[in-house]
Structures are given as C-alpha cells and as structure tokens.
Design a protein that fits this description.
The chain is an alpha/beta fold. It contains 4 helices and 7 strands, in the order E-H-E-H-E-E-H-E-E-E-H.
Length: about 170
C-alpha cells in the first residue's frame, strides 16, 4: 500500500497539509496505541467519526480511545447499536454513538444527538456517514478499510480545526 504522507517508524502513514492522510494499521496493538493516543489528545467538543464495514474495528478503536480518556476499567465500552448512545465518565466525558440503525441526519436531529457535538466531551460516532451533513466540519473522520484479517487502512480526513496539528505530532 502506498501512503499519502511520511512513514513513521511503526509503518503508519502520517498526515499531509491538505487535510487527508492514510494510516496503515497492522495489528491490534497498533489499533490500541493509535486509539489510546486519540483519547489522550482529545479535547472537549471534539468529534471523531468512524465509518467502515462491519468488523473493521470501529468499536475496538473506540475502546482504546476510552482508555486514553481514562474511562474507568469497570465501564466496559460496547457498541451502542441498539441504544444509539452510551455515555462514559473519564477525563472528559465520552459520548459513544452508533448511527447504524438511523436512516439519515433528520433522525439525528430529531433525537437531539447534535447537541452532544458541541458539548463538554468527546463524541465518537460509528456509522457517521448517516449524519455527515450535521456533524461539525472540525471533525476527524476515519474511513476504515479491511485489507486483511490483521491489517486495516484508515483514511483520515481532518478538514479544519485542531486535528491536523495533532496528527502531525502523532506522525513525528
């Protein structure tokens, strides 16, 4: 796989200045390391959107993000497929959303989930493409692709906002 940015020592592809990058994840440990880092650098009001096929690792990445937010171990992070939203305490609150069962952004708005996007915690949204027109432009969007049973490719789109600088630090 050819990347769009500089290769780090872990083989991960780093960000470029135009708001997109590709990151190759070769193991569960790399997923956990990246998610832990995302949780550590997340700030109140941040939104991370996760899209990809079933089994791509959206919930696994969210579990690692929760560790980076210092969510207590007794708060086991699961996919909120049926409840749509799970809230977890941590350094800042984690609002874990799963829009798989929603049709489009009108349901997101009708249910009031958009209010969380600008709150005092981190929103992590699985199946975020169903709400792409209502999530903030300052979001970090990760499109997850399964390359093999062990390997994932993350297409990162960090648009406007603080994610470009943060991801540059990760790649360094």
């Amino acid at each position: 796989m050819s990347g769009t940015g500089p290769v780090t020592s872990s083989g991960a592809q780093g960000p470029q200045s135009h708001g997109q990058s590709c990151l190759r994840i070769s193991s569960l440990a790399e997923t956990q390391r990246f998610g832990l880092w995302l949780g550590q650098v997340a700030a109140p009001g941040d939104v991370i959107c996760l899209d990809g096929d079933l089994g791509a690792g959206k919930t696994t990445l969210t579990q690692a993000i929760a560790q980076g937010l210092a969510v207590p171990e007794e708060c086991y992070v699961t996919s909120p497929t049926f409840s749509i939203l799970h809230e977890y305490p941590g350094r800042i609150p984690l609002y874990h959303m799963d829009f798989y069962r929603l049709s489009d952004e009108t349901e997101v708005l009708d249910l009031g989930f958009d209010e969380y996007f600008y709150g005092d915690g981190l929103c992590v949204i699985e199946w975020a493409e169903r709400a792409r027109d209502v999530v903030p432009f300052s979001r970090l969007h990760i499109q997850m692709t399964i390359d093999s049973p062990e390997t994932r490719r993350y297409q990162l789109n960090f648009g406007v906002g603080p994610w470009a600088e943060r991801l540059a630090r990760y790649a360094a």
